[in-house]
Amino acid sequence: MKMIGNKNLFTCSAALLLSVMIAGCATTTKQPSVSTKKDAYLKDICDRNNVSWNWDQVSRVVTLRYRGIEAKVLVGSDLVLIGDDRVTLSAPTSTVRSAVIVPPDFSDKVIKNLRRRAGRRKGYVFAKVRSIIIDAGHGGKDPGAIGRGGLQEKGVALDICKRLKRLLVKNGFKIQMTRDSDRFISLKGRTEIASRANADLFISIHANAAPSRSVYGFETYSAKDLGFIDRIATQRKLNEDLMFSNLSIKNNATDVERIVSDMMYEHKQAESKLLARQIAGKTARLLKTKNRGAKRERFFVLRNTLIPAILVEVGFLSNSKEEKLLKTKAYRKKIAESLAKSILEYANGE
Predict the structure, then answer these.
(1) Quick one: 93 and 28 in the same domain?
(2) Which of 123, 215, 320, 333 allows an S-S link to 210, with CB 3.0 to 4.6 Å?
């Protein structure tokens, strides 16, 4: 991928967008404020519809993205730009304690518009998701969780990963495993493998444990939003250097690298959250087990992996019933098949 440009181009583009939107909103400033009984949080609407969003609080422009289609919302205005089209809302967007609030017709006029446009371009974005890193948790000297019957997490994870690899390869995916045998690989090493691989997704497979033996079910994790310290952490910067070495960026082009890093981070956070939610829902349904949901955590492999990444907990070894299931080849096969179906749906943009 060749990157050409500089910070001034991005600044000028933002300024141009802002001026166009303000010009189109000159007549909206006298409109009444949105009724608090009918307005809604933008975050909630986007989460329900799997729409990623990013708010630049300096320019006050919110960018919505859904399967390759973008919309621009100027906070404080009733105007939304979707491609070359201008959409006028019933009232201006606003903020309440740093949260973006939208009027009641936002879902119909903006979200449905995005989804309709994306439907015409189905597969445009996700058709390129063809290379995946599969990470079998623990291994070697690290057994991971151990059930009361002696079943070790490292063996369960590896077996499921091998099965998942075979299924995905049959469907045309390029697969690389962080480990394909019972050996120990550090968390640091796992993220470095992902950074060198030029892959599209990172999926880490684990089995769970809890103090209460009654807890059971399937759950997924994506990374929590990173703070400034996490963004400049040593391992993350090292992984960025490894990835940038594969890109055509001039030496010392720090502005370009920073822009690319920000773009990658926004893409990763949005897609990881979407993937985690889709896999948790569909896989738990296929396995006929409890869906414990898609959660967000600061796990090392999630926060230091630069591509969309999730961690999957296939069941609880601390639960005697699930330990017995996970001990059988038939159930591990079913888990791999269910995961493969979920990943295929995501990769095809379904």
Answers:
(1) yes
(2) 215
